[in-house]
């Protein structure tokens, strides 16, 4: 007889599950209450406040610092809210029994022999995904769920005849991993920061690669959700020097410094578009604070293009969208910076297709790949669909999602 499966006891379940004396998944709302259409409520939980993070870090990590005037507490709150919504959406899909099953060895095997090799063009980074991250996952179940989720998502493309089956499995593992990740992210330590950093990277790859039902998609809102999730990595800001010196170092130690004064050959005409965006800021009637926020967002977009221009490999150039942690949340709330990114993503896609860097399922994750773990944001092809939807019918697009005028200006500038 096989040994009994161990489990962790918890007293943090919802009031309804406690009353019924059943195990609660501790989501908000939990799966049991969702199934029964019950109101899910919890006793107030006390969260210990975290000390202020250190302010001095290695020079090469400056690019990962938050925008001026944005506190880590604000970012943490926004991140937790985004993760909560993200997890709730996943829970609605991950409807089957929440336990490990016989398919997991298959997923782990596929990750080790295939999926991990698609996550980077560079051998040192591949080694981290293939060897170091699984080692960390042995001690952190939520990271193991993240690995299995990526593997299942990859299999859903490799084996289209079982697409629905593997996609459901991927969502299931991501939902399970998020439960613990959200809790631990509130209290990062020198021991768990590596697992948290790795899982943050997994989330970014997953959310960019997972297919989206275009009928239910909320175009710019979905991209902004991705921005907020990506911002969660700044919760680990004080641990970046430690992570950089660890086995995960190759994921961070890359020079993305912008070299100004050189033409942007990859994106001919982009300089003119950025100039037009700045001009629009001078003629629009805006509050000074709002104008400053949008100007900062455009400046960061310009820096992004400089970094892309001098990336070492073309495939890396094709997938990198510089991290949004230096862009104030207010800019994302206004959608303008997001619209710029969609415009930029379309140009990246054109460049990749011209150079034949994406070739079907074998290159599945090359389009949403290694730089996610450096605190950079990835943009997938679904962003291009959002942009095309706007260009096909801008009035309907604006009406459906209430796009501010700045977003329209940014998209039309392309």
Description:
The chain has 414 residues and is mainly alpha-helical. It has 3 domains: 31 residues, Zn(2)-C6 fungal-type DNA-binding domain (CD2-Gal4), CATH 4.10.240.10; 185 residues, no CATH class; 143 residues. Helices cover 55% and strands 0% of the residues. The protein contains 18 helices and no strands. α3 packs antiparallel against α7 and α6 runs parallel beside α8. The chain is globular, with a radius of gyration of 21 Å. The N and C termini lie far apart (65 Å).
Number of domains: 3
Structural class: mainly alpha
Spell out the helices and strands N to C.
HHHHHHHHHHHHHHHHHH
Characterize the main sheet. Answer: none
Estimate the global geometry from the Cα principal axes.
globular
Return Rg in Å. Answer: 21 Å
Mean pLDDT across every amino acid position: 65
Given as residue ranges, the uncertain stretches (5+ residues, pLDDT < 50) are 45-70, 93-98, 314-325, 335-388, 394-414
- Number of helical elements: 18
Beta-strand portion reads under 5%
Q: Bin the helical content.
A: 55-70%
Oligomeric state of shown chains: single chain
Kindly state the number of beta strands. Answer: 0
CA-CA gap between termini: 65 Å
Keywords: DNA-binding, Nucleus, Transcription, Transcription regulation
Protein name: Zn(2)-C6 fungal-type domain-containing protein
GO molecular function: DNA binding; DNA-binding transcription activator activity, RNA polymerase II-specific; zinc ion binding
Pfam family, one: Zn_clus
